[in-house]
Amino acid sequence: MKKIITIIGARPQFIKAAALSRQFAQIGVNEWIIHTGQHFDSNMSDVFFEEMDIPAPAYRLDIHSLPHGAMTGRMLDGIERILENEKPDGVLVYGDTNSTLAGALAAVKMHIPVIHVEAGLRSFNMNMPEEINRILTDRISSVLFCPTETAVKNLQREGFNCQNPAIVKNGDVMQDTAIFYAKKAEKKSNILQTIDLQQFALATIHRQENTDIPENLQNIISALNEINSEMSVVVPLHPRTRKIIENQGIKTYFRIIKPVSYFDMIMLLKSCKTVITDSGGVQKEAFFFGKNCVTLREQTEWTELVENGFNILAGSNPEKICQAFFTLINRKSDFSLNLYGNGKAAEIAAKIILATEKTEIHRN
Ligand code: UD1
Ligand code: UDP
């Protein structure tokens, strides 16, 4: 496939795209990016394009801040109109956001093969919008790039076979990005001077199940307040969570900062003592940068981190969160385990995409 349209819109997708767009440019895939606009603040979007030299979007839909149906529906409409004109050989989508589902659905209805990077992940919790998005996207994709063996097995359990659609375990493209930018981040980021702390825990919170259920958010904040009395907690806060904390007047005693750039995030991850998060990407990055992680969820798609003792699932229960934190802060983990490939996930995917003819792809 020589002409690919990539659909991105949310912060983690920019970070994943950074790895694959670079490979596309190197091997001669003609990539056109559609930015749905789902994330739109400059520190949630532009900063990543600038810092990581992601090609400028050819199209910007500017669709955001809407309920799920309206957001996905408007994206579907906008993407369909562009695909009609551009007639790409394939459409590439990442992860599990509303932008992912809208892109996949627009393409499959037009008989354009869908390529899903980060396929096969499951939390087995259908209350999460992400679980719905990823199950549906996988079902209508023709090429499924899986980051882990667990992801491959999840697809097989759901009746996918390995040829049609094609399932490829290529590794994790976020690891490629982390490896590629780790040194650059050291040179370019000033975040450690800005926060000026000897030791700290790094936390992020943004998942719907934590922000939109007031009791869950209160509980998480009270756990972070308590941890902060022992060790400083730094939270680059997602705008969703910031708005809710402000509206509800919840008291926070830890250090809240604006969402940071990826280079700043790398430096925070490298320098913190432990990570506390409900983010999918940050759970893995904690591991990439040698940190244990308390996960503010009841399940994770990244089960290998829990099985190998790098991650403890604490949900939103304040006692469990504090207990997990104080357990992990003293745990000596061996981060040399290879869980996510060898940093060549994007290279593998790009070569396969280039070599696959549209006509070779058939769907069940
Ligand atoms: C979305 C994804 C989630 C992913 C996350 C990454 C879905 C269903 N959810 O969640 O899977 O983990 O992105 O961060 O697709 N907002 C701003 N400025 C921004 C971006 C968002 O103010 O730049 C506000 C919006 O106005 C909205 C809220 O944050 O009110 C939530 O944004 P939305 O994109 O709907 O969901 P996320 O929580 O970001
Ligand atoms: N991230 C960032 N700045 C921040 C918070 C997160 O650059 O202030 C990066 C983080 O390093 C990871 C990605 O954003 O690469 C994760 O995105 P997020 O947590 O928003 O979404 P999820 O992975 O949960 O879908």
SSE diagram, text form:
Layout: E1 3-8, H1 11-27, E2 30-35, H2 46-52, E3 59-60, H3 68-86, E4 90-94, H4 98-109, E5 114-117, H5 129-139, E6 143-146, H6 149-157, E7 166-169, H7 173-188, H8 191-195, E8 200-204, H9 208-211, H10 214-228, E9 232-236, H11 239-248, E10 255-257, H12 262-271, E11 274-277, H13 280-288, E12 293-295, H14 303-307, E13 311-313, H15 318-328, H16 345-355
Parallel strand pairs: 1-2, 1-4, 2-3, 4-5, 5-6, 6-7, 8-9, 8-11, 9-10, 11-12, 12-13
Helix pairs in contact: 1-7, 1-16, 3-4, 4-5, 7-12, 7-13, 10-15
The chain binds uridine-diphosphate-N-acetylglucosamine and uridine-5'-diphosphate.
Kindly list the characteristics that best describe this protein.
Rossmann fold; binds uridine-diphosphate-N-acetylglucosamine; alpha/beta; 364 residues; 16 helices; 2 domains; 7-stranded parallel β-sheet
Instruction: Indicate the proportion of strand residues.
Output: 5-15%
Average pLDDT rating: 96
Instruction: List cofactors, ions and other ligands.
Output: uridine-diphosphate-N-acetylglucosamine, uridine-5'-diphosphate
Give the terminus-to-terminus CA distance.
20 Å
Largest beta-sheet characterization: 7 strands, parallel
* Total number of beta strands: 13
Query: What is the C-level CATH assignment of the largest domain?
Result: Alpha Beta
